[in-house]
Design brief:
The chain contains 27 helices and nine strands. The chain is of the alpha+beta class. The protein is globular.
């Protein structure tokens, strides 16, 4: 039996990464599925009358070994993958999809769940138990338990195919990201680039056995080039390569995958009695319906568009005055925005980066968590990791009790997908009177240290770290009985509140002075720079809002109707972008073919939730500002009613309990400078 099929005999029961071999996974999955099936059968075929404990709670805690194994394997497939792991994922995903269907389409099991659900008044259940019961019942009804046999079979086929397509989509995007390299041999082509970016590019070229400076589509390489490189043609080359990911008609092309995923999702939703995939998804969201999402996005669009168009005209006029550019293209946006920001605010990332050494920012975010929520983070080296870059921490409360284990993985590498995310290796739950604490991880792609400099973050990277750490706090402070209601297991349009609200501290003097110190001199960030950060916080906010809204509208265009008549991914996308378009289209580029959030991750019909949660976070942070950004009373309310409560109640109920009232959209518009304060 594999090490993966037994309780981990490790410190804090952490994953024994170094002892796991790739060849262990498939047999471990097969055995774990077999064990989980036996547990399910025992619940389904029990002779006793169905009760909450013997059916719902038993079902909740079944398959623990399989859940733990899945979280380890699929997290590695995102953070440290290789061809072998990808191949195993293609084999395992259909097995898990099949197993999931074996549960939701098990008639005997559903009969028992339904019996408890229909007699719920008799069981004297508390709020969390009622929520779990409803979630389990809907888990069956929303996944085909009420279908006839022929339709159940159809559903199995669809789910199996979707699990494979989503994996393939992600593999293609990663392959395309890794494949592109732009090698520069002429030093004059580096004009405008900061020294750190040049040094990192030279080191990268060296590591590949090449002379010169190498740039890739990894964000720490791509973003500085697009922001600072004076060579417009090279910016164009890089921008087109980034925008053409999985849109070249070759082996890594995702166009057919996009069309098939959208069509299968629609087919699945209609099979279950919904008008579209979005109708299916949004039933379990704060937004409730596609109409509400469309109204929300269009309302914001109406308010943001005039500002966005003014900002774009200003940017275009600035580029023309500076360099005689007649038409602003997508590869000009970051470059001229940075130049204009420097002109207006005398502020650029290169001024700020020396104050944002990665280690200092990490300590800063820990200190803020300590002051707000009484947490202590201690780096420990006694826990196994899957890569040397991964840092590990023990999180305790003021009495020294274990609260969580925390992993942090900060730098890009070939086996890691782009972007940043928070994830869970082990959820929090209470079982047999023991509060089993969670193992939480954040994964980012920040600029690596060079031979002469430590990892110095851009301000955008600082806010990214705070964002992911906000998600982590939602996991770390979880305090519920049932794992499927714990931590970030909440409605998707609520999950971004803890992450986005924490970003606000990056703009506050009291917080910045805790960690923004110069990496060479130790001097605290000057007040003048803090004021500039605050003043520039809403710079081009209209353009940024339009960009986010365009992604949300594109997502809804794929999922809120019948996609079966769509034949061209590109044409469909152009139509979806009509009302948000600022830059001219680039024929070689397509967003959908690399839109991993909605075609690989869990954001289908949910991309709007970033903006939705911004309304919540702006409103929540106004409360902190009213009382003080480190006010213990407000922080305790946020911890008690939001961070610790997971999904045990309707999120609006939890939010009102924290805030004392419903969130006001005006808070976001005020913060964004789109309406008067």
């Amino acid at each position: 039996m594999s090490i993966l099929n037994a309780p981990f005999e490790t410190l804090y029961q952490t994953a024994p990464f170094s002892k796991i071999k790739n060849e262990d996974y498939l047999p471990a999955f097969q055995l774990a599925i077999k064990k989980a099936k036996a547990e399910i059968d025992a619940i389904a075929n029990a002779s006793e009358q169905p009760t909450f404990e013997n059916t719902i709670a038993a079902l909740e805690f079944s398959g623990e070994e399989l859940d733990r194994l899945s979280s380890i394997f699929f997290n590695l497939n995102s953070a440290e993958t290789n061809e072998t792991i990808q191949k195993i994922a293609q084999e395992v995903s259909p097995l898990l999809s099949e197993f999931s269907n074996d549960i939701t389409l098990n008639e005997s099991l559903f009969k028992r769940v339904k019996a408890v659900y229909e007699q719920r008044e008799q069981f004297n259940l508390n709020t969390e138990q009622l929520t779990l019961l409803e979630k389990k019942y809907k888990g069956f009804s929303r996944n085909g338990a009420n279908l006839n046999e022929a339709d159940k079979s159809k559903l199995r086929t669809i789910d199996k195919r979707l699990s494979q397509l989503k994996l393939k989509f992600g593999e293609n995007v990663l392959a395309e990201t890794n494949k592109f390299e732009m090698l520069i041999s002429n030093v004059s082509d580096l004009s405008g680039l900061p020294e750190g970016a040049k040094e990192a590019a030279q080191q990268l070229a060296e590591s590949k056995g090449k002379e010169g400076w190498m740039f890739t589509l990894d964000y720490p390489s791509y973003i500085p080039f697009m922001t600072y490189a004076d060579n417009r043609e090279l910016r164009k080359t890089l921008a087109i390569a980034a925008g053409a990911k999985a849109f070249k008609g070759d082996d890594f092309d995702n166009q057919n995958n996009v069309l098939e995923i959208a069509k299968l999702r629609f087919e699945r939703a209609t099979l279950l009695g919904y008008n579209s995939h979005a109708h299916f998804v949004l039933e379990e969201r704060m937004a409730k319906s596609p109409e509400n999402v469309q109204n929300f996005l269009n309302d914001l669009l109406e308010k943001a568009k005039p500002a966005a168009e003014r900002e774009f005209q200003t940017l275009e006029a600035f580029a023309k005055d500076l360099d005689g550019i007649d038409r602003l293209e997508k590869w000009d946006g970051a470059y001229y925005s940075e130049k204009l920001k420097q002109k207006l605010f005398s502020l650029d990332d290169e001024q700020l980066k020396p104050y944002f050494k990665l280690e200092n920012v990490i300590n800063g975010v820990f200190t803020i968590a300590e002051r707000l929520y009484d947490l202590k983070f201690e780096q420990i080296n006694t826990i196994d990791t899957y890569h040397d870059d991964v840092l590990t921490y023990k999180v305790t409360d003021t009495n020294g009790n274990l609260v969580s284990i925390f992993y942090a993985d900060f730098f890009p590498r070939a086996g890691k997908r782009n972007g940043a995310w928070m994830t869970v290796y082990k959820p929090q739950y209470i079982k047999n009177s023991e509060n089993s604490r969670p193992h939480i991880s954040i994964v980012c792609n920040f600029t690596k240290p060079t031979k002469s400099k430590p990892s110095l973050l851009t301000f955008n990277e600082v806010t990214t770290l705070f964002h992911e750490f906000g998600h982590a706090l939602h996991g770390i402070l979880a305090n519920t009985t049932y794992p499927s209601l714990s931590g970030t297991s909440v409605f998707w349009d609520f999950v971004e509140l803890p992450s986005q609200v924490l970003e606000n501290w990056c703009y506050e003097k009291e917080a910045l002075e805790l960690f923004a110190t110069h990496y060479e001199t130790g001097a605290t960030i000057p007040m003048e720079l803090i004021e500039k950060i605050k003043a520039s916080a809403t710079f081009n906010e209209g353009i940024q809002t339009m960009r986010q809204l365009s992604f949300g509208l594109l997502d809804m265009s794929w999922h809120s109707g019948d996609p079966s008549t769509i034949t061209s991914v590109k044409s469909h996308e152009l139509k979806a972008f009509e009302n948000t378009k600022l830059y001219p289209d680039v024929a070689e580029n397509c967003m959908s073919t690399a839109f991993s959030h909605i075609f690989q991750g869990g954001y289908s019909s949910g991309y709007y939730s970033y903006k939705w949660a911004e309304v919540l976070d702006a409103d929540a942070f106004e409360y902190f500002l009213e009382e003080g950004v480190f006010d213990k009373t407000v922080a305790k309310k946020f911890k008690d009613h939001i961070l610790s409560q997971g999904g045990i109640e309707d999120p609006m109920t939890l939010y009102k309990r924290f805030r004392g009232k419903a969130p006001q959209p005006e808070a976001l518009l005020r913060r964004a400078g789109l309406i008067e304060k």
